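Before relying on records like the one below, remember that each one covers exactly one chain. Contacts with other chains, cofactors or solvent are not represented anywhere in the record.
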Amino acid sequence: MSFEDRTLICRDCGVEFIFTAGEQEFYAQKGFLNDPVRCPECRKARKQAQPRSSGERGGRGQRSRTGSA
């Protein structure tokens, strides 16, 4: 499969950004089916804005096992 750089528009700020052939190859290797919708700056800002606490994932608490196995 051949990849070429593509110009995309950020969903959040509306700026054009390049989705490079290397990034497309990486996405394909990881099995990602959709193109990114945010520019690198907005992706970084969005990640930093998300609260992350250790031991929790996706807003769920940790499960505890009770009973005998």
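The longest strand covers residues 6-9.
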